Amino acid sequence: MKLSVVMITYNHERFVAQALSSVLAQRTNFDFEIIVAEDCSTDGTRAIVMDFVRRYPGKILPLLRERNLGMMRNFKEALAASSGSYVALLDGDDYWIREDKLQAQVDFLDSHPDHAVCCTRVQFRDEINHSEPYIWPPKVSGSYPLSDLLETYCWIATCSVMYRWGSVGPLPEWFLTLKMADWPLHILVGRSGKIHVMDEVVSLYRVHSGGAWSSLAPVDRLLATKQMLTALDRHLGFRHTGAIRPVIAQICLTLAYTARHLGSRKQTAEYLLSYARNRWQLPGSRRLLAALAAYVLIGSWYKIFSRAKQAEPT
After folding, report:
1. Which end of the chain is less enclosed by CB atoms within 10 A, N or C?
2. In whole angstroms, what is the distance from residue 92 CA to residue 35 CA?
3. Residue 223 sits in the same domain as residue 202
């Protein structure tokens, strides 16, 4: 099989028909399978998926969970069921807006064997804040090394990505403990080749209240990212620590700053200690570190001392 499209879905009654229709509309000169892992939804998602299965016999492989596995295990088992040389991802609440999306990415990977990941630009639609749609990622099109994905942020949208499959092997058990699936998988696949960003906008990514990631509080997202990067650093044998540790340090500093404003000296201290363990001095952070350390040591009294010092006659 040339390509497997892997879709996980849970309570996507409003979206999944559009997602599946966008996959079935793809024009390709190769066969591909569609694996839909339906995680025991409590709405009408399963009925919609099965309607598509009946209408397109032999095209869609439904994985119908008897109980809710959770996003990470559902995703891991869906990937394990794929048989394609390439794997494209599309969650059940997103969709593709160009019919040549798969063909263009397969053509690129076929002609560039030194690349392991190919992604495109996507349109982000925020249905929570109802802000204007915007295009992602804000990067120049072209090829990038793995380090660029480690030392910045996750600039690959799940609904845009295609992998050269087979180099990862079974996903590690720690993968199941995470709250995000895309960024660590991009990195695990990206170890075996370059990452290419195509300039075309071919997908739409929805931000909505039922999204697994968008429904998390900002602090929980930071904690989940810290957990993921720490596990990856260990899994990669600390060969990329120089790229990963500054990102973790920045997260710890942000968490400490947030804890300070929430009035938690204990958490501020914990995050500062975690920052120190990463042994990284971020540019321009010395003054903030001093203020946070003072708060941990003497609480809000440091503000009084600071004001008194400023008021002393010279």
Report:
1. C
2. 11
3. no
Q: Are residues 21 and 118 in the same domain?
A: yes
Q: Is 311 exposed, middle or buried (0-12, 13-18, 19+ CB in 10 A)?
A: exposed
Are the C-beta atoms of residues 241 and 151 closer than 8 Å to each other?
Answer: no
How many CB atoms sit inside 10 A of residue 309's CB?
8
Counting beta carbons within 10 angstroms of the beta carbon of residue 162, is it exposed (0 to 12), middle (13 to 18) or buried (19 or more)? Answer: buried
Write down the residue that tokens 């501020």 correspond to: 268
Mean pLDDT, the chain, integer: 89
Tokens for 164? 């050269």
Instruction: Tell me the three state secondary structure of residue 95.
Output: strand
Q: And the tokens for 65? A: 């969970």
Out of 173-177, 275-279, 303-307, give the one with best mean pLDDT: 173-177
Do the Cβ atoms of 31 and 2 come closer than 8 Å?
Answer: yes
Measured N-to-C along each axis, helices 218-235 and 182-190 cross at an angle, to the nearest 10 degrees, of 20
Q: How confident is the model at residue 71 (pLDDT cuts 50, 70, 90)?
A: very high
Domain hosting residue 39, numbered range: 3-207
- Distance from C-alpha of 87 to C-alpha of 101, rounded to nearest angstrom: 13
Q: How far is CA 291 from the centre of its chain?
A: 33
Strands 95-96 and 194-207 come out as antiparallel
